[in-house]
Amino acid sequence: ALLWLYIFPVYRIPSDKEMVDEVLRQGQTWSRNQTGADLYRKLLTECCDPKRMFAVTKENSPIGKVLWYDGEIYHYHTVTNDTYPIFVQDTPLQFPLKKCSVVGNGGVLKHSGCGKEIDQAEFIMRCNLPPLSKEYTTDVGTRTHLVSANPSIIEKNFQNLLWSRKSFVESMKAYGSSYIYIPAFSMKPGTDPSLRAYHALADSASNQTVLFANPDFLKNVGRFWRNHGVHGKRLSTGLFLVSLALGLCEEVTTYGFWPFSVGLDEQPVSHHYYDNILPSSRFHAMPEEFLQLWHLHKSGTLRMQVGDCA
Ligand code: CTP
Q1: Atom of ligand 1 nearest to the CA of 236
Q2: pTM of the model
Q3: What interface predicted TM-score (ipTM) does this complex get?
Q4: Which residue puts its alpha carbon closest to atom 28 of ligand 1?
Q5: What is the pLDDT of residues 201-225, one digit of tens each?
Q6: Would the CB of 152 count as within 6 Å of ligand 1?
Q7: 129 C-alpha vs ligand 1 centroid, how far in Å?
């Protein structure tokens, strides 16, 4: 039995109630640990080189380069005369980024009043083309510098862009002149819709820049967190963006990360701030991810805002 325990250490995700207690116990006590933040930036730079590698660029992906998909095996895309021109020359961000907000889509944001605080950061990242209409502004803010767009949303909300592209281009205006971060080379069926999204924006003279997520970067970040005990089939978009922020920004604050069904007031909380559609449990290990981020919060490496903003 001891050998069994050694191979499979007892590892239990706390219940929702235990997590609430833990966060309440910690309260508002938090102070930044610059050494911790520097250490994580170093670790992430060593494993994943976010500054150079987070997007597919002409620099890291010349014609002929084979991009192996990170979400499935045996599939790859060879960079050709067709795809090379649509990649940015090099990482377009200006470093160093001082203060970054990473906004998850958790229901804890509802009635949080965090919009102003989120918007105060120098660089704001959001996940999965979230709604930013007026009714949400006080809770989630309005500014965006980078927003991720999974091909599955393009399929679900915009008929894979096979028909009209107008509503897609219109809805993207909510994100100002931000970077649209698309994992085009993660799953084979996602590539064509992603390329169509690029062309739809380019043809409409949009001032947004499409960045294709580099599958090598996603793979390395996945490995990094697996080594830290995150066992999901694939990391959630939120954790990819927090990893990016830890690698690029001096100060990281997260909002809307709370994959539990009760809030700090012990009342039910919806899964998203805009709906209560639950995720497929097969895919991510969000509570495990949360524990990792909570650990970083407690050590002062980043700050997780879970409760309402003052
Ligand atoms: N999230 C969270 N708690 C919630 C909901 C979301 O921590 N209750 C975080 C997760 O990191 C998630 C991100 O916010 O990746 C964006 O939320 P969502 O759009 O719901 O992500 P998913 O649909 O699960 O998609 P993905 O596969 O892109 O992660």
Answers
A1: 29
A2: 0.95
A3: 0.98
A4: 237
A5: 999 989 999 999 999 999 999 999 9
A6: no
A7: 11
